Amino acid sequence: RLSCIRNNIWLASCGVLSSGLAVLSSFGLMLFCGVPFVVTVANAPFLILGVGVDDMFIMIASWEQSSRKKEKSSVKSLLAETYAEAALSVTITTLTDVLAFFIGTWTAFPSVRSFCLYTGTAFVFCYVYTMTFFGAVLVLNHKREKGNRHWLTCMPVGVDEDQAEGSCLYNACCIGSCSRQPAQPEGEHPMSIFFKKYYGPFVTNKWVKLLMVVLYGAYLGGSAYGCTQIREGIDLRNLANDDSYVIPYYDDDEKYFSTYGPRVMVVITESVDYWNETVRLGIESCAQNLE
């Protein structure tokens, strides 16, 4: 937003900070409990950031809708209305994510088990911080807007006739409006208007609904076929601890022996008199014949 009062940069930044706090809390708790930290766990913050930012947008959208419906309501009722609208969807998505990752802790691979423990716990903390910390930030931001305060300095912003003679950029950054008028609460977002007036009626047309069903059927069939073509593959280094002897072994194997193809081994399943020179020569002869 161009208005220095309606600008929500700090609100968005606190939403990202909420995800960061969840990552720090979960990693700290897991390390305190002695859960091994493997290289795959380093991918967890990106997953938490995606879910946390999504929850942030849901909360902000619900807050703005509640503010438009009840402009003169108290902060308590606005926050209650926001949680009534947003908390259900945020809770369900968090539960499904947590369930999916905690089921992954049943795997036999220790590295995958560690990754699932770290990520699942981070989702729990992300939910807690969204419902507590970010809700408080919403209220503080609302009070700042009601007090006509600047988004960066939090100083009161007024429309003085002497100050309003500056450029449009100065008015937008320092006074609150390019039109030299006090900042007013915004109406419905253009994106919401688009989905309500145009997109919604379009997708509810019977022919469009039939087309959607056909397209979804094609997508489902393609997905089922794709599942039959999946080939499992994973870098085995990522399945070991960082200090495991397996990692330098695979590094050396790739560096020195990757050009020679797969290794062939011969196993003698019966007891052999290795002290007998004739037996040793016979084994060496067998190996030469195989080569």
Automatic annotation (TrEMBL):
PROSITE patterns on file: SSD
Localization terms from the record: Membrane
Keyword set, alphabetical order: Glycoprotein, Membrane, Transmembrane, Transmembrane helix
Keyword Transmembrane helix included in the entry's annotation: yes
Protein name: PTHD3 protein
Species of provenance: Ptilorrhoa leucosticta
Domain called SSD: residue spans: 1-140
Entry annotated with the keyword Repressor: no
Membrane topology, record value: Multi-pass membrane protein
PANTHER family: PATCHED DOMAIN-CONTAINING PROTEIN 3, PATCHED-RELATED
Transmembrane segment boundaries: 9-38, 44-63, 83-109, 115-140
